[in-house]
């Protein structure tokens, strides 16, 4: 095997043991405190930039891989991560669900594919899917703090980095390696599967992978007035990738071609609003056809007839990745990440294409890690991207735009005794041009962060991070003007928007070794000139939104505690809460309510099992034109049998049951919470084989 190990940019594959300790799940993988501490040091966070271990980070990081990822992943990235403290999802039916981190979503949460930005249309609207397939992910990281500035100052909420194997970084020892997984679920009659294979010889390695999913409309909990299933909530996806790499003793250079297709429904569309338009600051809607509406303006008669819009999406992407050790004097690693995307989706209504969204974009980043200088270890880099976005048709509420961004960044760390200091600096330039009107807006901003981690006692660490980040407005916030039926809004952009500036403080305390481990983080984020859709008027369930700026404050707490109860049992308690308000005291809309979860894990020989109760509070802190969301509790169960441990052919059979009591529940973060409640009872049976 070629003796090359990636050093941060491409990520180091983690063992299931490490992920279990980091996430404080399935604690029976660890047998002693010293083993736990040793394993933690092996957990490498690729997106940290400096190949740091989780215990070395100054701010919270979630890492999901191995057996934990197999059991946790769902059809979308948002729902896969939703159980982590501080993370929820937008939940737009079954086909589209983006992560919401600390109450922030859209452009404030950047989604990466192994360090390169995923260029789809998911930041434009919550009904647009993220073009990332969880079944093909090898590891998922969620990062906040100084290192997040490496990927763009706009990531005020955080960064989600999805690692995959599409570009090989090593020659398999036996010449080939792979995995296959198949699963079926009862909640939506889902059938899904994935297969990946890497082979190579000499200096050449090749990787092939494919995945597919076929799910019908999903069922909801007992007592929903709309019926037993959500009309139009089906989800059918296929995707695959072919990658090729040259691998040497000092690094690798490779590329991969990936295609992803999806066809999913958009529940909650209200066709009666098609004629809505603004008169100054007021809405005018006409042409109602007499259908029955509920109190939120949803047309259940149309939904029941099956007249639900469908998204037909295709994304073609080319990835180029490379790393070179000791490229030139004074530098230890040179990394390259580049992505070229051709994205398109059609929104089909009554059998005809109503609107077509296109996004042609590239993202390029180069970073170099320098040798220690006066005790400082760090990296410098440059990032450049260009995005050409257009929407044509009935819902073309944003004229075609071109957005160009360039960023320079620097990350440095300094260690002394039990202290580790980390600082980041980034300068961004952005130009956004509306092609029809010719209006051009330029923004630039400087962002910086300083954090420290203090290991004041063996197995304990305290962290403090101060961040000032400047986010430029997006093309949609600047130039939107039109009806957006998926969210029942008429959106008005504002070409005079300036950068929003976030001033954030994070304070954390962790215990990473021993029978009792925990991680507690408190944060406060004061944002000057926060950009949001201010409601000017509402009529028949439609809101007239004007993108505006006001100061806002986000305050929250995230915590997780795990207690070992012998060699086979462990218990975990976790929870989170976020409060977001404008300076005027008005609540921001669609904020996640407080959560508290209790989980019991067991491992005996080759068996793993868990039982979990999650209690979600009612969301009563709402804004004008928003409705209260009732609280709920859900029971989840899981069991797995692991065969072939220690052999080249490991396999696992698993069963997981979510919402076992079939509770009717609604997502406070969703635009269509009343038209698309959360899934009811869902029992999934699956098998995964490594070879």
Automatic annotation (TrEMBL):
The family line of this record is: Belongs to the TonB-dependent receptor family.
- Bilayer topology annotation: Multi-pass membrane protein
Query: What is the protein's major site of localization?
Result: membrane
Which keywords are on file for this protein?
Answer: Cell outer membrane, Membrane, Receptor, Signal, TonB box, Transmembrane, Transmembrane beta strand, Transport
Keyword Ribosomal protein in record: no
Q: Which GO terms describe its biological process?
A: siderophore transmembrane transport
The record, for PROSITE patterns, names: TONB_DEPENDENT_REC_3
Which parts of the sequence belong to the TonB-dependent receptor plug domain?
Answer: 55-159
The residues forming the signal peptide are: 1-32
Q: Where would you find this protein in the cell?
A: Cell outer membrane
Looking at the record, the residues that make up the TonB-dependent receptor-like beta-barrel domain are: 261-660
InterPro entries linked: Beta-barrel_TonB, Beta-barrel_TonB_sf, Plug_dom, Plug_dom_sf, TonB-dep_rcpt-like
Q: Does the keyword Iron-sulfur apply?
A: no
One MF term in the entry's GO annotations: siderophore uptake transmembrane transporter activity
Q: What protein name does the entry list?
A: TonB-dependent receptor
One Pfam family matching this protein = TonB_dep_Rec_b-barrel
Cellular component (GO) terms are: cell outer membrane
Question: Region labeled Disordered — which residues?
Answer: 287-307
Its source organism is Diaphorobacter ruginosibacter
Skewed-composition ranges (Basic and acidic residues): 287-303
């Amino acid at each position: 095997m070629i003796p090359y190990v990636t050093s941060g940019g491409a990520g180091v594959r983690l063992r299931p043991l490490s992920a279990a300790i980091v996430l404080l799940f399935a604690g029976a993988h660890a047998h002693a405190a010293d083993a736990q501490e040793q394993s933690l040091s092996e957990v490498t966070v690729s997106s940290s930039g400096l190949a740091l271990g989780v215990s070395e980070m100054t701010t919270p990081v979630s890492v999901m891989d191995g057996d934990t990822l197999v059991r946790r992943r769902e059809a979308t990235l948002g729902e896969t991560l939703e159980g982590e403290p501080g993370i929820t999802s937008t939940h737009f039916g079954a086909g589209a669900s983006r992560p919401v981190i600390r109450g922030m979503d859209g452009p404030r949460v950047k989604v990466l594919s192994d360090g390169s930005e995923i260029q789809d249309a998911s930041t434009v609207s919550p009904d647009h899917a993220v073009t990332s397939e969880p079944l093909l992910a090898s590891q998922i990281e969620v990062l906040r703090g100084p290192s997040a500035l490496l990927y763009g100052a706009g990531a005020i909420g955080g960064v989600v980095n999805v690692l995959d194997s599409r570009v090989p970084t090593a020659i398999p020892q036996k010449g080939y390696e792979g995995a296959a997984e198949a699963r079926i679920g009862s909640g939506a009659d889902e059938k899904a599967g994935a297969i990946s294979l890497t082979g190579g010889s000499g200096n050449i390695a090749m990787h092939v992978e494919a995945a597919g999913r076929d799910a019908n409309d999903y069922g909801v909990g007992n007592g929903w007035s709309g019926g037993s299933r959500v009309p139009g909530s089906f989800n059918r996806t296929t995707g695959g990738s072919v990658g090729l790499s040259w691998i040497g003793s000092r690094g690798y250079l490779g590329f991969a071609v990936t295609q992803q297709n999806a066809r999913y429904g958009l529940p909650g569309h209200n066709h009666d609003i098609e004629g809505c338009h603004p008169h100054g600051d007021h809405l005018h809607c006409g042409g109602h056809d007499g259908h029955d509406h509920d109190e939120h303006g949803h047309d259940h008669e149309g939904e029941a007839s099956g007249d639900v819009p469908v998204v037909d999406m295709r994304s073609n992407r080319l990835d180029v990745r490379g790393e070179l050790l000791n490229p030139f004097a004074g530098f230890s690693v040179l990394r390259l990440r580049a992505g070229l995307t051709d994205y398109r989706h059609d929104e089909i209504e009554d059998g005809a294409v109503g609107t077509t969204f296109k996004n042609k974009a590239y993202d390029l980043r180069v970073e170099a890690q320098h040798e220690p200088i006066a005790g400082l270890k760090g990296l410098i880099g440059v990032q450049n991207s260009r995005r050409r976005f257009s929407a044509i048709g009935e819902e073309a509420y944003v004229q075609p735009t071109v957005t160009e961004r360039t960023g320079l960044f620097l990350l440095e760390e300094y260690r002394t005794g039990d202290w580790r200091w980390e600082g980041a600096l980034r300068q961004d330039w952005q130009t956004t041009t509306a092609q029809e009107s010719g209006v051009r807006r330029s923004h630039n901003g400087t962002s910086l962060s300083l954090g420290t981690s203090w290991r004041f006692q063996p197995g304990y660490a305290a962290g403090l991070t101060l961040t000032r980040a400047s986010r430029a407005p997006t093309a949609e916030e600047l130039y939107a003007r039109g009806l957006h039926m998926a969210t029942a809004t008429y959106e008005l952009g504002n070409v005079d928007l300036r950068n929003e500036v976030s001033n954030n403080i994070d304070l954390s305390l962790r215990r990473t070794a021993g029978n009792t481990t925990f991680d507690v983080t408190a944060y406060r984020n004061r944002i000057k000139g926060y950009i949001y859709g201010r409601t000017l008027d509402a009529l028949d369930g439609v809101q007239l939104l004007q993108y505006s700026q006001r100061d806002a404050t986000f305050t929250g707490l995230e915590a997780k505690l795990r207690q070992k109860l012998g060699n086979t049992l462990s218990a975990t308690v976790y929870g989170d809460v976020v409060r977001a308000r404008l300076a005027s005291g008005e609540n921001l809309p669609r904020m996640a309510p407080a959560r508290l979860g209790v989980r019991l894990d067991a491992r005996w020989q080759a068996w793993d099992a868990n039982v979990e109760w999650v209690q979600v509070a009612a969301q009563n802190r709402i804004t004008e034109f928003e409705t209260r969301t009732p609280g709920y509790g859900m029971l989840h169960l899981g069991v797995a049998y692991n065969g072939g441990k220690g052999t080249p052919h490991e396999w696992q059979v698993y069963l997981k049951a979510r919402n076992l009591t079939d509770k009717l529940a609604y997502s406070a973060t969703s635009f269509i919470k009343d038209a698309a409640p959360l899934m009811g009872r869902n029992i999934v049976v699956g098998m995964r084989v490594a070879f």
